[in-house]
């Protein structure tokens, strides 16, 4: 078969089923082998290469992302997929109500800050910046306009997970203390303030820390148990504060929090780094 030829319905069905089986294992905290799954899947496909399967898995991740789901860590979403793929994913979700229970439990599962972290390796490079534009909603495959039905926004549910958010803030606090003490700035480390706890929400940031020069550093912390590229929610107040204090504002994004937490930082106006998609409006009379 020519590798560029479209996938058959049977190939899509077995690939979606295998991906979702792996995803449910991951959501449940159970071990599995991606390599073993791929080896078992390849004989069911019509001469597809491992690279083609990898791309199809990334396409499935893109379908899930557009429908408010998380996705398998390591299968970074890639769009421009067959429209039939979205239909097969939606059909699988409709036929497997147990997935909703598992995904909901994963999004709402409590968390605590880990006690042993290698802070020297915690910080990593951020994902590539996307053009700072505002869109009305998700972009459909192949550039076609599409309204996507979302039964439950699991990303939004996780964003409201207070225990996970607090655990992420406490880990970020510990990292900031490490950063300043390692630079010989003990007096600054002792002045760090967890403002979302000491003063309350609404300031536009969670942690008041310091640069090595003594200048204030405003840190907003966003935490996910899932992939590095998982979207996050920011309030209008946070966006405005980041823009008004761009030289001092840092967004700390913690990801894969339950597995092996890592962190990347976005400095300055959030719109410089992310595409901003409005998801709701306040309607006044």
Concise synopsis of the structure shown:
This protein has 285 residues and is an alpha+beta fold. The chain contains ten helices and four strands; from the N terminus they run H-H-H-H-H-H-H-H-H-E-E-H-E-E. It folds into two domains: 9-108, no CATH class; 141-272, 3-Layer(aba) Sandwich (Trna Endonuclease, Chain: A, domain 1).
Account of the 3D structure:
This protein is of the alpha+beta class and 285 residues long. The chain folds into 2 domains: 9-108, no CATH class; 141-272, Trna Endonuclease, Chain: A, domain 1 (3-Layer(aba) Sandwich), CATH 3.40.1350. It has helices spanning 9-27, 34-41, 50-66, 83-95, 98-108, 154-159, 162-182, 186-189, 195-198, 236-244; strands at 207-210, 216-223, 249-255, 262-267. A 4-stranded mixed β-sheet has the order 1-2-3-4. A hairpin with a 6-residue loop joins strand 3 (249-255) and strand 4. Helix 1 (9-27) packs across helix 4 (83-95). The longest helix is centred in the middle third of the chain and has 21 residues, at 162-182. It is elongated. The termini are far apart. The model is unreliable at 134-145 (pLDDT under 50).
């Amino acid at each position: 078969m020519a590798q560029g030829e479209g996938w058959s319905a049977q190939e899509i069905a077995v690939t979606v089923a295998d991906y979702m089986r792996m995803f449910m294992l991951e959501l449940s905290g159970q071990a599995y082998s991606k390599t073993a799954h791929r080896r078992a899947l390849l004989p069911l496909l019509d001469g597809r290469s491992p690279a083609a399967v990898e791309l199809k898995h990334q396409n499935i991740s893109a379908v899930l992302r557009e429908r408010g789901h998380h996705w398998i860590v390591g299968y970074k979403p890639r769009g421009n997929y067959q429209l039939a793929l979205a239909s097969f994913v939606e059909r699988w979700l409709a036929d497997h109500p147990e997935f909703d229970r598992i995904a909901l439990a994963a999004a709402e599962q409590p968390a605590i800050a880990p006690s042993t972290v290698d802070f020297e390796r915690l910080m990593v490079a951020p994902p590539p910046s996307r053009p700072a534009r505002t869109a009305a909603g998700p972009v459909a495959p192949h550039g076609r306009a599409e309204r996507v039905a979302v039964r439950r926004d699991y990303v939004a549910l996780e964003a409201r997970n207070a225990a996970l958010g607090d655990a992420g803030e406490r880990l970020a606090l510990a990292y900031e203390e490490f950063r300043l003490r390692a630079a010989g700035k003990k007096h600054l480390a002792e002045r760090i303030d967890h403002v979302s706890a000491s003063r309350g929400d609404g300031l536009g940031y969670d942690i008041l820390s310091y640069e090595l020069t003594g200048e204030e550093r405003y840190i907003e912390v966003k935490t996910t148990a899932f992939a590095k590229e998982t979207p996050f929610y920011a309030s209008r107040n946070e966006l405005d504060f980041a823009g008004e204090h761009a030289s001092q504002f840092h967004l700390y994004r913690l990801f894969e929090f339950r597995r092996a937490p890592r962190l990347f930082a976005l400095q300055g106006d959030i719109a410089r780094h992310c595409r901003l998609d409005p998801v709701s409006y306040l309607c006044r009379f």
